[in-house]
Specification:
- With 92 residues, this protein is α+β, with helices and mostly antiparallel strands.
- The chain is 37% helix and 35% strand.
- The protein has a 4-stranded antiparallel β-sheet with strand order 1-2-3-4, with no helix packed on it.
- The chain starts with a helix and ends in a 5-residue tail after the last strand.
- The model has no long low-confidence stretch (mean pLDDT 85).
């Protein structure tokens, strides 16, 4: 009888862990879509991260497009630095 109690407890723990893992997977996969208001078209987005690269000392180099401009930024935990701003190339 005691072995059945342990088996049920392990099965319940496995089920709870599977539900947590499934919830995390869903949030990672669909999280950004869940944060937008209903009916918001995706084509109207003006802000996009085009590229990012890790640098030494926990810094990140990021290329961002904001409307018709592109910005090159260096981000760290305590600061942000704008390296350059240019007009975004037109897709032809």
């Amino acid at each position: 009888m005691d072995i059945l109690v342990y088996f049920r407890a392990l099965a319940a723990l496995g089920l709870v862990l599977a539900l947590i893992w499934g919830g995390v997977w869903l949030l990672r996969r669909y999280g950004s879509a869940l944060m937008q208001p209903p009916g918001a078209p995706k084509a109207d987005r003006q802000l996009a991260i085009l590229e990012q690269m890790s640098l030494p000392q926990r810094k990140t180099l990021v290329r961002v497009r904001n409307g018709s401009e592109e910005h090159l930024l260096v981000l760290s935990q305590s600061s942000e630095l704008l390296i350059s701003s240019t007009k975004a190339p037109t897709d032809a």
